Give the backbone structure.
Amino acid sequence: MGSSRVMDTDLGSNDLAGMVIRNRQDRDSRYNKGQAWQSWSAGPVPEWVLLVPCEGVPFYTNYKAYIPTPGGKRKGFYLACRCENGRNPGAPCLLHDIWRKDSAARQVGRDWRGNSAKPKSKSPYFPREYYGITVVRWSYFHYVPEVEDQGDGTIKIAMRWQQCKDDRSDAELLEDGVDDTDCQLCTENARIMRAVSRVGLESYCRSASERDGQWAREHRRDFGMRRYMNMGPGYFDSLVNAGRELSRKCRCGGEIKTVRYVCPVCRKKKPEAPTVLMDPRTTTLSPDEVSVYWSREVKCPTCGYRGAPYEEVRCTAKCGRPSPRRLWDQPIKLQKQGEDTTTLAVLEKMADIIDIEKLPDSLKKKCVPYNFEEMLSTTTAEQAELLGIPDPYTAGRTDEEDANGDGTVKPTMSRSTRYET
Ligand SMILES: [Zn+2]
Ligand SMILES: [Zn+2]
Ligand SMILES: [Zn+2]
Ligand SMILES: [Zn+2]
């Protein structure tokens, strides 16, 4: 019903004459809802990170499409899906409306805007699956001023966290000195640290010169930086497979074997006969689907539970408490291989298992998963603004639909891939 309204009236090419293409910064700041949300992705140089899984299903599934701008002069932008890739028809979604319209138009050599396009070409509005997870960059950072060129002849000085080039601990740096450090910022930092370590930060800041006090407050090194990754399917699968390999080792050193996957809720009620969701020996799923089953949301046909499946395992060493090692049990050194759409995650190294509860408070509070639902949720108004078109849904809404009064119709989403059993 909603979508035909879009198709027939509101997206006619005449309406698009005044289409505004926003610059990337505008879009990203809106998409990321401010500074609290910043993404990170592994680069070609390996970096230590700690992954922090979401509660329930470890990865947050979401859908979006990369929309190139016409003419290709500017970079394109991401448009997020609201309808859970069609699984939630109750959530109106401009991305899907336009994808359908664009796909149909491309059959006859047009795009949805009415511009000519290669006949039968693939629509770029096709929503792809993405997987979010919280990441703590597991290294030191300095808080330093950086000069930003505003592009209009003026500059702005902004404080930024910059990765320290020396991975020795504060204690080691104090002990060894910083004569051989690659990190210029550490040289100054160590001078302050020596003084601070004698009298404590607060009293140092009070007694030090204005300049040093300021430095100690602002330029200190800090360990750990909370970010998030939102991974495309190829990258995600390579990470999940690395995690799979890792989880074949028991913490006791033995080998872990999967017995079967059961419903965690039914298991609590009836430990001796829980609902079996997937048995690798009898399943009709493909080997690829079996290997990622642990990382996806499933639905229990008995009790209706939706979430991660419970994996029953045994340990070949018969240790009595088989516990598979997980991707997030220890810092891992991640590297990206490949370019553009064919990047893979490479788990280069892993550290010893850590206990988050025993970390210092300042670091522990960074090891908390982000609320992806809150960050990635979008409204049709936001979708329309990115596309530079009027929002057909808010224009025709009733007060009943818009219970919040803010133009949003609350989606009832659970955004994970499901394997119905
Ligand atoms: Zn959608
Ligand atoms: Zn440094
Ligand atoms: Zn159940
Ligand atoms: Zn074991």
